[in-house]
Amino acid sequence: MVNSFSSEDVERLSTGIPGFDRLIEGGIPRGFFVAVVGEPGTGKSIFCQHFIAEGIRVGDKNIYVTTEESRESIIRQAKQFGWDFRKAIDEGKLVIIDALMGRHDEPWSLSSLDVEELVNKIIEAKKYLGYGRARLVVDSMSAFWLDKPAMARKYSYFVKRVLTRWDFTALLVSQYAVTTSLGFGFGIEHVADGIVRFRRIVVGGMLRRYVIVEKMRQTDHDLRMYEVKIIKGKGMVLEGPIRARKEDFALPRKVWLKMLESELMKELEVSGEEHES
Ligand SMILES: Nc1ncnc2c1ncn2[C@@H]1O[C@H](COP(=O)(O)OP(=O)(O)O)[C@@H](O)[C@H]1O
Ligand SMILES: [Mg+2]
Fold first, then answer.
1. Does 268 lie in the same domain as 211?
2. Closest ligand to the CA of 196
3. Residue 1 domain-assigned (yes or no)
4. Atom of ligand 1 at shortest distance to CA of 38?
5. Which protein residue's CA is at the shortest distance from atom 16 of ligand 1?
6. Of 190, 195, 237, 269, which has the fewest CB atoms closer than 10 Å, so is most exposed?
7. Contact at 8 Å (CB) between 44 and 38?
8. How far does the centroid of ligand 2 lie from the alpha carbon of residue 180, in Å?
């Protein structure tokens, strides 16, 4: 007996990270707007670069908007993982819209962090790249409403509504302000078809990074949190899931971090014992 609708009917775009694709039945459904949230240094930009590198590889049109790093910084970072973004730009497969430098003398720059200017520039880039399936990264979206967080939801809705007609599958990055637990990402999260959350914690003097898929419409996604490694020459790699329950993540952050810490300490002790024996 076959269901009238099964998740196999959904066209999916690989993220370029095999370990991550496995969490979401092979990839992100075409046309989805996915929020990528997390604190600084958790791997959000590198995750997005994988997605773009994969797009270049399979012949999609690719647009990367950068607000926190310059275009040159993105190109240099990508190169460390073996991706030639410069070549893709020259071949008309990729446009990197630089919203950091605020230049006026260069076509693919934003002169200000204005949502309307952003959307117009993205559409212009899509027209330049041509007809067909497209990937969009906005890294980060939250930069556009830093000085007016109350507008986050309205702006997110506007961006999605306008860009939906242009055949984009999009990753919208959002900084997560930890200290205040004030999520600048909330705007995006309300309209997002999917939410990928990155986290970081220092355990036993070591920085560890994690990722969890909190939401992915039309997808029987994995509910576990995975450790993430960023490896020179390779990029992002997912390690095994951590042994904690989904419910734990719904707890207040402080409580949750304490539990995660003790969980990881236990693991460290166990592996320490194995080495000793
Ligand atoms: N070539 C590299 N080899 C290993 N780790 C790297 C390399 N380049 C960057 N990283 C790691 O990735 C981190 C930056 O990740 P990034 O995706 O920019 O974070 P975010 O966008 O969440 O702020 C760095 O702090 C570093 O730990
Ligand atoms: Mg970043």
1. no
2. 1
3. no
4. 22
5. 43
6. 269
7. yes
8. 19
Give the lowest-confidence range in 54-58, 117-121, 260-264: 260-264
Alpha carbons 212 and 198: distance in angstroms, whole number: 7
Spacing, Cα 46 to ligand 1 middle (Å): 7
Whether residue 136 sits in one domain with residue 35: yes
What is the per-residue pLDDT for 110? 95
**Ligand 1 nearest atom to the CA of residue 80, by list position:** 1
Mutate which of 230, 231, 232, 234 to test ligand 1's pocket (most atoms within 8 Å of Cβ)? Answer: 230
What is the model's pTM? 0.87
> Does residue 194 sit in the same domain as residue 266?
no
Ligand nearest to the CA of 66: 2
**Beta-strand pair 182-183/168-177:** antiparallel
- In angstroms, rounded to a whole number, what is the distance separating the alpha carbons of residues 53 and 17? 10
Task: Decide if 272 contacts 248 (C-beta within 8 A).
Answer: no
What is the domain range of residue 25? 7-242
Domain assignment present for 2: no
Q: Report yes or no on 222 lying in a domain.
A: yes
pLDDT over 60 at 171, yes or no:
yes
250 shares its domain with 133:
no
**Same domain? 104 vs 155:** yes
Cβ atoms of 132 and 166 within 8 Å: the answer is: no
Q: Are residues 119 and 225 in the same domain?
A: yes
Name every protein residue with a CB atom under 6 angstroms from any ligand 1 atom.
Answer: 38, 40-46, 80, 230, 232
